[in-house]
Amino acid sequence: MKSIADIKAIRDKMQSEIILRDNSDSEAETRVVVGMATCGISAGARPVYNTLLDEVATRGLKNVKVTRSGCLGMCKLEPIVEVFVPGQEKVTYVEVNPEKAKQIIASHVVNGNVCQDYLIKE
Amino acid sequence: MYRSHVLVCGGTGCTSNHSGDILNEFQRLLAEHNLENDVNIVRTGCFGLCAVGPVVIIYPEGAFYASVTVDDVKELVEEHLIKGRIVNRLLHKEDSNDSVKALSDTNFYKKQTRVALRNCGVINPEVIDEYIAYDGYQALIKVLTEMTPQQVIDTIKASGLRGRGGAGFPTGLKWQFAAASPGPIKYVCCNADEGDPGAFMDRSILEGDPHALIEAMTIAGYAIGAHQGYVYVRAEYPIAVERLKIALKQAKEYGLLGKNILDTGFDFDLDIRLGAGAFVCGEETALMVSIEGNRGEPRPRPPFPAVKGLFGKPTILNNVETYANIAQIILKGPEWFTSMGTEKSKGTKVFALGGKIVNTGLVEIPMGTTLRTVIEDIGGGVPNGKKFKAAQTGGPSGGCIPVEHFDIPIDYDNLLAIGSMMGSGGMIVMDEDNCMVDIAKFFLEFTVDESCGKCTPCRIGTRRLLEYLDKITNGLATLEDLDEMEKLCHYIKANSLCGLGQTAPNPVLSTLRYFRDEYIAHIVDKKCPCHVCKGLVQFKIVEDKCKGCSACARKCPVGAITGVIKQPYSIDVNKCIKCGQCIDTCRFGAIIKE
User: Fold this and answer.
1) How far apart are the CA of A55 and the nearest CA of chain B, in angstroms?
2) Position B90 pLDDT exceeds 80
3) Disulfide engineering: B319 pairs with which of A98, B165, B369, B480, CB 3.0-4.6 Å?
4) How far is B574 from B557, CA to CA, in rounded Å?
């Protein structure tokens, strides 16, 4: 059981980890977030999520965390993957498949080049 | 076994840029750090990107370093190879074009205001700490340590929050009634039995932000003096149920649920009850009967649940989306909430956009946003250059909003005034190809299936209503039938026991109000203007266009198409089952419906 002070401590710690993305501290974690609500999963988010995990593992990437979230609202464009690199704007990739997922890790997460072809076209 | 491979380009371009010296420097530094057996250095052929040479690639990461100098090698060895950190400074940067980088920069997002959905797609729903990072459970702490139950109720009342399940009853008032009911045992329930065809915002909240519901229900429990809550969720939402279970477990471990929450002396526990997917169980009295373990059938009100609800005790029942607003109202204050929306409808509303629209998905807009904004700006308009005809809101209880009300600000009262309703927030867009009689029939088929059968007006009335619609769509009805049908609609509305029956005729009434000409066309001209109703449509081959290829005849499952090769074919209307396969098959557009 936690006390009120514990909850506040968790908040402060987590905020510095996941919200304050404007710090360009090289130690901070890159987060790769996959939308995994029913809409995402039915569009094929599971193989994408697994591919991302595999790719991060085989490349031995440190400071990269693959995680999942709920529905972003644009169900039509699922599976959606968002990449948060510390100190940079977030990038949203849409209609991702395992092949694209590999490319996102190789090109964006490792080499810092946004995969332009997988972005939203308006 | 090497743990890393360093590839140094040895092509002509890079060699002339001193890649040989880079290679030597790598070897020297690796020897210095005793890493010769861990890191393999390879001199490769040309990578083809000579303009950014010398190029160095380091595996397993696959980092692509460009324009590397001899002086950079030290950093690459110490940072990348020893500490495992990629050296961002040296990575090759590609030119970027004008694509939209982040979802939040799209038109789809710009006009939205996310309150109930604020954490959906942002946090990991299975990690309680991420919810806490976004001020999760801070509202509960505030309520338990700084506010009295009456202050909580007053705050919710002042916010003007109304039930997001559809009827729009003021939430604070509901809580006030339950708090005022005497008795030591009270219950807090959540209606997550989202049954409207096309609506999925409750599922999305449960899947994306389950702790928001737990926090809000605990606050509600404190406000009315309840110590037990139930979430009634349909079993068809397995992922939502799973995530809610995980969230409940985590909240209990953290002492945010159970006995003596956060050492404040307040007890509250939550359990999940699964519904088997009956639409009527979304009606509040039927839902509570179902939680009690009985067959889900409504009972007359009063007594209202706030007086006599679950197990005969005072109970409040709110929708998932309603609860998703609570913690934010407590934290940011009622004034913040009332700053959004219209005079009588405050805050935001989530809509599930579906049907003939470019951007299907979930949108959350401030109350008072116009239908035009939702459909054209956020939804991206109707696809394939078709014309917008109507939007259906409120599911089987709601009605259609035609194009002439395109600029009406969406709120509870405006929608009711134009014969529709907010409902749980499904919004189905229809274009010129949708037959409105067929739409009314679709929704009525749904209510006929889902009527529980307890009261006669609903059980028999909706069935008779559907029979009228069948007659109309088959061209067998008369104008007298149309009048009788309208009378029956009002009878069902006035006499049904619960909301399901009372609202079941709405799709018929609203289409009659705005699209009576389509009903008349079916009845008088025996035509379906949109060529949807099979009973009134005939398939025909246009002789001028038919090349006599026989493709349609070979595809027809009932052998209704005959002819001589290279001469126009014809369809035997008596055999034709109007399946449409011939239209899909014809490459010359020679087959039409009329």
Assistant:
1) 9
2) yes
3) B165
4) 14
The alpha-carbon gap from A64 to the nearest alpha carbon of chain B, in Å, equals 11
Interface test with B, best of A69, A85, A115 (most B CBs within 10 A): A69
Nearest CA in chain B to A62: B84
What is the rounded CA–CA span in Å between residue B333 and residue B364? Answer: 20
Question: Which residue is associated with the tokens 């810092």?
Answer: A112
Inter-chain touch A116–B85, beta carbons under 8 Å: no
- Comparing alpha-carbon positions, the chain B residue that sits nearest to A2 is B254
Where do the structural domains in chain A lie, given as residue ranges?
23-118
Residue A21 has pLDDT above 50, yes or no: no
Evaluate whether ipTM surpasses 0.85. no
Tokens of B563: 């002819």
**pLDDT-derived band at B110, boundaries 50, 70, 90:** confident
Tokens encoding B342: 């219209």
Q: Which regions of A1-122 does DSSP assign to beta strands (E)? A: 30-35, 64-69, 81-84, 91-93
Q: Give the pLDDT confidence of B492-508 residue by residue, as tens digits.
A: 999 999 999 999 999 99
Q: Where are the alpha helices (DSSP H) in A1-122?
A: 4-14, 38-42, 45-58, 98-103
Distance CA A96, CA A34 (A): 10
Contact A71 B208 (CB under 8 A): yes
pLDDT recorded at residue B144? 96
Beta bridge partners of B5: B40, B59
Q: Two tokens at B141?
A: 């702490």
Q: What does the pLDDT look like over A61-99, one tens digit per residue?
A: 888 999 999 988 888 899 999 999 888 888 999 999 999
A92 → closest Cβ in B60, B102, B134:
B102
d(CA B572, CA B569): 10
Length of chain A in residues, anyone? 122
Q: Which domains does chain B have, with CATH numbers?
A: 4-90 (3.40.30.10), 128-338 (3.40.50.11540), 348-431 (3.10.20.600), 436-523 (1.20.1440.230), 538-593 (3.30.70.20)
The count of other CB atoms within 10 Å of the CB of residue B395 is 29
pLDDT band at B468 (very low <50, low <70, confident <90, very high): very high
Contacts of B110 in chain A (CB under 8 A): none
Rounded mean pLDDT of chain B?
92
Nearest to B550 by CA among B593, B505, B588: B588
- pLDDT for position B562: 92
- B196: pLDDT strictly greater than 90: no
Q: Which residue do the tokens 């471990």 mark?
A: B253
- CATH pick for A23-118 out of 3.40.30.10, 1.10.3210.10, 3.50.50.60, 1.10.10.10: 3.40.30.10
- In terms of DSSP H, where are the helices of B496-565? 499-503, 506-523, 551-555
Q: Which of A16, A18, A84, A90 to mutate against chain B (most B CBs within 10 Å)?
A: A18
